[in-house]
Amino acid sequence: MKKGRTKTVLLSKNFLSMPEIRGILDYARSRQWILRVPRMLNLAEEARNWQGDGVISDNECAMKELKARGIAIVGLTDLPPELLRNADILLASDDNRIGTMAADYFLHRGYRNFVCAAVNLRRTAFLRRIGESGFRSETIDFALDSCPGQYGKELESVLRKTPRPFCVFCDNDFDAAVVADAAGSVGLRIPEDIAILGVGNESFFSNPSALALSSVDSRLYERAFCAAKCMEQLLDGELPRREANGGEPTIFRFAPSGIVERESTDFYAVETPRLRKMVHFLQENAPSQFFRVSELAGKFLLTESSVYRAFRARFGISPKQFLLEERLRMAQRRLADTDDTLSAVADSCGFPGPGALHYAFRRKFGCSPNEWRQADPVGRNRYGHLYGDGFTRCRVCAARRQAAGASPPDRIR
After folding, report:
1. Domains of the chain by start residue, with CATH
2. What's the average model confidence in pLDDT over 366-372?
3. Which end of the chain is more exposed for a tag (fewer CB within 10 A), N or C?
4. Taking a C-beta distance cutoff of 8 angstroms, is the pair 270, 279 a contact?
């Protein structure tokens, strides 16, 4: 079609995801598209009868017909087979990294009892990393969106019989909310008995009034924004259609930016009473820049080497590194929830000065404290705090710049 002409695009969305919808709407408004958003009940009919320029979809509705009519197709996932077989471009999450990140996060927090409710590659990656660490995970093999109906009692049975404390990795935030409800039904305390982690950082599910759910931030807004940009480039001839690409779709995979920690995982799984008390003592004293690990050893009548061995054995890091990470988490909360200067944040979080905070923050998350604070809440969410922890770098600033102009990362043909 002629470059610069107004585009007419159908958003065929089967799964309600507000970040994705906002991302596409924001781009469409900026380019003055005519964007059709049908009701979910009418998706199949709308897709079959669509006569516009393109379709952005997360489902299989009328894919063959759309392709046969030469309509450009951009997919928001690579899972539906018909979408995979007919789309020109697919934008998908990096599920291998998501599953691995979730496993590393729970291992870091000391868990030894695991339940995996994720599916496909997220499940495979999670189970693989847990197995590599010498543990095994229970699995939930039924659809959580069928709870509390058909499988409600079965889910409750799994939660009852799993040794405590344990953690559950869910495929998305909707499923995480289902598990949280089931945990309450069987009298499990969150996070003391069960820690729950979802995927997507969907504020609708992650921030209910009763319980805030932790989530892997899979960059839904950015992915959807880039999907709309790809549609524009397809229609303008700047990106190749499927036929010009050897009959294969161009696939972009988005690595997760980090884990947004909230109440549902705010717990270290430590069975040993003395080590649990040491963790609490360290957390209580983290705001003091004068606190040293030697004080921790003295408090519990241990040698420093004994303290180091205990933390290494349980968390895989030294108590000094544990202390630094607690201070960085505190700093993230202050940066997100207050307008305090960097000097005030550093002073209240145990850092000797703003320079020390800036150095530690950039080294850990890949951006400065001020860049992180100024990032769009879609990437940094004011109700939670990204947990990079060396498993992946926090890309909130780069992600925002990317969505505004650059092409998506990790291109696969």
Report:
1. 8-87+220-254 (3.40.50.2300), 95-217+259-265 (3.40.50.2300), 273-386 (1.10.10.60)
2. 87
3. C
4. yes
